[in-house]
Amino acid sequence: MKSWRMKDIVVMAALAVVFGIVYLLFLPVNVVMMGLIGPIGTDIIFGVWFLVSIVAAYIIQKPGVALVSETIAGIVEVLIGSSVGPIIILSAIVQGLGAEAAFAITRYRSYHVLVLMGAGVGAAITSFIWGYFRGGFVALDPSYVVLMLVVRIISGAVISGLIGKAISEALAKTGTLTSFPLGKTYRHRKAG
Amino acid sequence: MHNINPSIKAGTVTLAAIVIAFLFDPLALLLYIGWTIAVTLLFGKVQIRKYLLYLLPFTLFAIGMLVSTLLFAKIPENPSVTQQFLFWDLPRETVQDALALAIRVFSYSTLSLLFVLTTDKVAFILSLIQQCRVSPKLAYGILAGYRFLPLLKDELTTIRSAHLIRGAKTNTSKFSRYKQYTIPLLASAIRKAERTAIAMESKGFTGERDRTFYRTYHTSWIDWIFAAVMLGAIVLCIIVSKSFQ
């Protein structure tokens, strides 16, 4: 946290605001998915809710960014008026911890696509454990619960890992990220 | 309600939601829902019509939860014990689990509304700094980011007009349209954030903890009584529900 510049924090917050809106927009999608194919519908699109962790961590590349950006997104959701309430902040912290763990394992040195996907998987696992208690998955058929977990892990890897990477790199191409690590590596790549 | 310390209110609601996560007794949950709604409407000065409007999406969500749990429930231990539910005969255990889950979702919503409808957003962030020792640097960063919200809407209009005037294709698929808007929107948000951060620092914002506040928030015994009453009510609901069975 000490190494964060003011710029890092406000950019993180701005990303969190944009993704906070995206998260809220996906809540009704979630209800439709659930209505159509049951609780597993949620898991198919669950990766969307980890996006900010991966995007912010990949852009800023500092310890703690994955956790804090997701937490801010949770706070922003409460501020906008998510009726899920303050508990969404706790859910966000749990997801952020999972994503953060993947980056911590590499000691914040590698932002390879596999690490980004790993962060999505980490968030999927921690959020699933949290959801198990909160959502009362105990009441569901155990084999169905395992299937839900597998689908959520895939969703975390693909939606948040791969799409998150694509979004960050598309942003780097616009040249707005020149004062951030991701933008710098892009400039070098161009020059070289 | 509006005067209760926002941090304590948030903490209480969150704690209550965690306790409820371990509660499977439908009657106790129903009692607690009634209690939460009563507290919100009586002490929160919330209009009933507004309240119902907010509650509507959650009702739909709860119904979705009910249906999906009924369809995908685990195999009950004694499937022969059935219960009539609407038109079908279903295993009693399944029906009870499904009802409890749906009611639980519903009780989360009432708890959340209790917080959301009676709390000033800026007060919540300021109280997080003052009571929960959140770093001012982080908290004011969040507030600055939050202020971008109305600007984003203008930005979207700008991007749309820019696309139009330059003759960009607008009749593309939904997915590529998302891409068309998301990247410029994010890029402009990041640029704005950078400028804001520089402006904050140039005006002497250091983000140190020993700053002073124009608006201060304190905790008093009323806050703690609120917390105790809200959490105590859960225990009471469980006891009342047990005495009925």
Automatic annotation (TrEMBL), chain A:
Task: State which residue ranges cross the membrane.
Answer: 12-33, 40-60, 72-99, 111-132, 144-163
| Pfam families (alphabetical) | ABC_cobalt
Transmembrane helix found in the keyword field: yes
Positions in coiled-coil regions? none
Q: Which InterPro entries match?
A: ABC_thiamin-permease_prd (IPR017195)
> Which UniProt key words apply to this protein?
Membrane, Transmembrane, Transmembrane helix
Q: Does the keyword Transmembrane helix apply?
A: yes
Q: What protein does this entry describe? A: Energy-coupling factor transport system substrate-specific component
Natural source organism: Terribacillus saccharophilus
Automatic annotation (TrEMBL), chain B:
Report any one BP term from Gene Ontology: cobalt ion transport
Give the highest taxon in the source lineage: Bacteria
InterPro entries in UniProt: ABC/ECF_trnsptr_transmembrane, Cobalt_transport_CbiQ
Q: Which GO terms describe its cellular component?
A: ATP-binding cassette (ABC) transporter complex
Tell me which Pfam families the record gives.
CbiQ
**CDD domains according to UniProt:** EcfT (cd16914)
Task: Indicate how the chain sits in the lipid bilayer.
Answer: Multi-pass membrane protein
According to the record, the segments passing through the membrane are 15-44, 51-73, 98-117, 221-241
Keywords of the record = Membrane, Transmembrane, Transmembrane helix
Task: Indicate yes or no for the key word Metal-binding.
Answer: no
Look up keyword rRNA-binding and say if it applies. Answer: no
Any idea where this protein resides? Membrane
| Protein known as | Energy-coupling factor transport system permease protein
Q: Which organism is it from?
A: Terribacillus saccharophilus
| UniProt lineage | Bacteria, Bacillati, Bacillota, Bacilli, Bacillales
